[in-house]
Amino acid sequence: MKRNQGTSKGDLKEVKLSGTPKNVNLSKKETKPKSILGGVKSVKSGNSKASKTESLKTSTLAKFLPNAVTITAMCFGLSSIRFAQCNEWEYAVLCILVSALLDMFDGKIARFLDQSSTFGLELDSLSDLVCFGVAPSVVLYLASMQQIGKIGWGICMFYTVCCALRLARFNIGHRCAEEVSDLDRKYFTGIPAPAGAIVALFPLILFFETETFAFVRPFFIAFFLMFSGCLMVSTVRTFSSKIIEINNTNSWIALTVIAFLIICLTTRIWLSLSVLVAAYVLTIPWGIHEYSKALRSKKEKE
């Protein structure tokens, strides 16, 4: 009886050693801890990214960075007036262009850092009035419009007043942003102040590229000053940058276009700017047509 019991226990041991549960246990040991570790790592990485973003938004730098960019843009606008007084016209126009570039990013930086405020909005409007309302008028007056005396100064003042009215209307519209429809968010009412300044400076940009003095005649510059001022205070709808949506599928196209623009601007800046300004002016009637078309289709659906 004892031998039989011993052999039966041995048989049981052999079955335990040679059976499939050994393989099952090994597979569990290999896969289960890995999935747990991978989940822990992904959670840790997500938490670290979120904590870094939150710490950036609550830092002291985040509170001052958007306003610092706005003030920097204002300083460039004021510097353009100084360069114009020294007859350094190219530097004067470049300072206004840099102000326009910085104006594109200060609002985006404030929204990204959750630092949007009424103070920042008012400071941005005051900076825009200096950079895109006062500075272009002074530059163009000293460059050419002073040749026709009081009429030239009056036209320059007309442009500045139009820019101020456009900025005041923008501030009122921003306070009533909740009442704006999704269609209206994709279009500007008139042209924005930075675009108005660049359109007004278009004759000087053409002169830098071609060195043709006909482009800096007072009456030619007066036309663009009045044309730009009227567009800023008008109610025509022009394209906004919000219609361009960059995602994973078209990001490589956007990077290619940006790289191409940078190459063009660094090699032939005045020619590239001339083409860009002309193309922008040509998109204005297209934007009016597209907005009226979208508005009609919206009314038909309602």
Quickly count the helices: 12
The CATH class, by name, is Mainly Alpha
Mind telling me which CATH architecture this is? Answer: Up-down Bundle
Q: What is the radius of gyration?
A: 32 Å
Average pLDDT score: 80
Largest sheet: 2 strands, antiparallel
As a percent range, the share of helical residues equals over 70%
* CATH topology group: Four Helix Bundle (Hemerythrin (Met), subunit A)
Strand order of the largest sheet: 1-2
- What's the helix-strand series? HHHHHHHEHHHEHH
Separation of termini? 95 Å
Which structural class do you get from the secondary structure elements? mainly alpha
Overall, the morphology is globular
Count of all domains: 1
What portion of the residues fall into strands of 2 or more residues?
Answer: under 5%
What is the name of the CATH superfamily?
A: CDP-alcohol phosphotransferase transmembrane (TM) domain
Number of strands: 2
Poorly predicted ranges: 1-10, 12-33
